[in-house]
Amino acid sequence: MSDVFISYSRKDKDFVKRLHTALEQCDRDTWVDWEDIPPTADWWEEIQVGIEGADTFLFVISPDSVNSPVCRQEVDRAVKHNKRLVPIVHRMAEDKAIHPALVKHNWIFFAEDEDFDLNFQKLLKALDTDLDHVRSHTRLLVRATEWDKKGQDDSFLLRGRDLEEAEHWLIDGGEKEPLPTQLQREYVNSSRKAETARQQAEIRRQRIALGAVTSVSIAATVLAVVAFFQYQNATKRELIALSKTSEALFASNQEFEALIAGLEAGTKMQRSPWAKGDPEVRAQVMTALQQAVAWVKEGNRLEKNSGIIWDVAWSPDGKTIVTACQDKTAKLWSPDGTWLKTLEGHGNSVRKVAWSPDGKILATASWDKTVKLWNQDGALLKTLEEHTASVRGLAWSPDGEILATSGGTGDNTIKLWNRDGVRLKTFVAHTAEVWRVAWSPDGQTLASASEDKTVKLWKADGTPIKTLTGHTQGVWSVAWSPDGQLLATGSGDSTVKLWKADGTEVATFTGHSKGVRSVAWSPDGKTIASAGDDATIKLWKPDGSLVDTITGHTQQIYGVSFSPDGRTLATASGDGTVKLWPLDDKKPIAILRGHKDLVRSVAWSPDGQTLVSTSADRSLKFWKSDGSLLRTLTGHTDEVWNAAWSPDGLTLASVSWDKTLKLWQSDGTGIATIDAKSEEIWDVAWSPDGQMLATANDDNTVKIWTWSGARAFTLEGHTKTVYSVAWSPDGEIIASGSGDSTIKLWKRDRTLIKTLPAHNEGVRVLAWSPDGQILASGGFDNTVKLWKYDGTLLKTITGHNDAVWDMAWSPDGQILATASLDKTVKLWRRDGSPIRTLKGHSEGVLGVSFSPDGKVLALADKNGTIVLYDWQQLKDLDNLLSRGCDWVRDYLLTNANLDPSDRRLCKGIGTRL
């Protein structure tokens, strides 16, 4: 293995030699093909090995290298294995010639007139960023590749500490660049399965040994005890291993598989009373199970070794699902996942499927240039054979009397057929293949989407109406809203566009990182689903706001389809599966979206009826306890950092980096704006009697205000920014936490009581327990500290891997929740012992708040989302198992790929919710 692989054009050899020498002098091992390939070696094989074994792929940009087929091939290889890319510019080249994977990275310039030494230091810094993560990526890739080349021989799998480190790498660094590859994930998951199988065999051996000891002799008794403890240890290792497998799968966006592994761990722990009482085992199992139950979105999957699934469609009555398969068939399924029938007869892949509106005829389109019509029982009625290329589009008119079909490259036509399969009309529609066709709900307009970057509207008789332009690459999908007022299109340019029925462009939705293959409207017209080459599904409101992003497929998604009742979304993918996603699930979390930037804080009103959130988008939002948006408050001109309710719940105070403190009525009406005449304000807190306010300020002070907004006095003494301020419940002490790493305790009369040298880095947040006996602090040093009322340190709590950003006590004061930039929330008992870790956030968690009844945790994150956790449903093992088993029950009953033992996973657990 090497530190750097250098890809370059031979015309830049002199520069590369200088670069190579400089890297070698700094102890960076470089791989350059002028000296590393033996004369007799297979050239490309050596290049591949060099790329795979290097921590960083360095590309020297010049007009010659960007136009070199070999260099481009090398970049493709690096991208395939998710290698870290570092582009450096030696000679400028045309942007359009540069590989897209290099364009999105920051470039380091080494032009002849640039300071080589200065830029070389920038290069070293880039190479050393997240070096441990990058090296782990390389080591794991080399071993995974060897395993794959050896036919996935089990003898090449990871074991013991190597496996644990690889799983931790997937969990903790799963979103760092370079990202894990699918091969790496498969390698680690296969290693864990093999390790678990070995551990289960050990447990069976221990059980046999334990059962064989029947003598009443002392020696036999000792052996029995030893055997029992060995059995316990083996079981413990197995439960922790299963939990770590679940976490690794979850980190790899395989939430459904994570739930299965979590349920296996949970059911085994439930059957082992001693394991339930082991704090380490219980915490590990409950964390894995909780996150999987809370965040899983996939409800079931349809899979039958069919290769790529190109399309999926629900029958009008919702009782049958049809899939279009690469294996030249269409397959019929029941919604619970039971395979019903395979329709055979096409000579090539089936690309598109469509039910007639009455559900009596199924049309299938194929690369074999034909369309076949089948009755609802799967009997072939007729074959339509007039297209001269693959048939790409398929759509029935709303009355079911006309079938529109469209042709691929070289055909470029639309054909109209009657219900009996008689061709009515053919017209040349586009200058390139016609990907999709769709009828308006009134049947008066046909829309067609083409690789020629346009959408065309036609009268029912084929007369052209209008051409819609705006997409910059081929248009791959088109769908009408149920009311016929809007048209959604998906394109290879990675966007979804919305158009009025007259062809006027309304909006462009951005968010996909690759081309959009399919779009679909929910039956009520309130949601648009889009999916494509980035293997994600996105749900949008018609106004363009993103509702959700769903992951789980491992390859491109070619088709999306809502069930007729709108309760389930089906998606067809190149990974060989159709996944079913329940959209009305009653899970123990609700996700609130509406802010346009990261959410800074959340706070429940004293009556628990309203949640307020503050955001970097300069707004505050009021939400009902059920998660519905009440109103949006605007007025701040910079990020809103925090908000606090008065004890009586009648007034809300908010603070912002615009240097103001604002007061609002509980209905959102503004009361007053106070100019703090200082630097940015980070935090605000009410006195328990509601008569005064304290603010934490960037000018190193705490300012005290009357409830009406008049300044009362200023507390000075900190030497850096004050990030947090908190009144003790009795109102006698004000605690302040600062970037100077100290906590100061002040009397209400401004007297400084004590300065606590609290953390190794700045103090980010403070929170008093409801009884006022404990002050909790969270720091940029990743620790939590608990202090007595008088400032005596009780305990230092470690466990977070990044700054502790917010914290909250449960109303009964028995649980402390801490939110961190490490993307987790941790729950601790009052004595500082761990209870559980809540995972699932894709970004750091910035805010946490318990509802007044203690049942719901509100969490805010950097991703702009707010998550409401029904805490009561998440803390009980039996409830988690019941919910998890109900979620996967159809899968366990119907999936053909499961072993009989897998089907018994949830036997006797759960009832349909």
Automatic annotation (TrEMBL):
Listed PROSITE patterns = TIR, WD_REPEATS_2, WD_REPEATS_REGION
Which SUPFAM superfamilies is this protein grouped with?
Quinoprotein alcohol dehydrogenase-like, Toll/Interleukin receptor TIR domain, WD40 repeat-like
Determine if Acetylation is one of this entry's keywords. Answer: no
Which residue numbers delimit the TIR domain?
1-131
Q: Which CDD domains match?
A: WD40
Q: Give the UniProt keywords, A-Z.
A: Membrane, Repeat, Transmembrane, Transmembrane helix, WD repeat
Q: Which Gene3D superfamilies does the record associate with it?
A: Toll/interleukin-1 receptor homology (TIR) domain, YVTN repeat-like/Quinoprotein amine dehydrogenase
Q: Which residues cross the membrane?
A: 208-229
InterPro entries attached to this UniProt entry:
Beta-prop_EML-like_2nd, Quinoprotein_ADH-like_sf, TIR_dom, Toll_tir_struct_dom_sf, WD40/YVTN_repeat-like_dom_sf, WD40_G-protein_beta-like, WD40_PAC1, WD40_repeat_dom_sf
Q: Does the keyword Transmembrane helix apply?
A: yes
Looking up Pfam families in the UniProt record yields: Beta-prop_EML_2, TIR_2, WD40
> Repeats (WD): which ranges?
302-334, 343-375, 384-418, 427-459, 468-509, 509-541, 550-591, 592-624, 633-665, 674-705, 715-747, 756-788, 797-828, 838-870
Example GO BP? signal transduction
What PANTHER family does the annotation carry?
F-BOX AND WD REPEAT DOMAIN CONTAINING 7, WD40 REPEAT PROTEIN
Can you name this protein? TIR domain-containing protein
Report the source organism: Aerosakkonema funiforme FACHB-1375
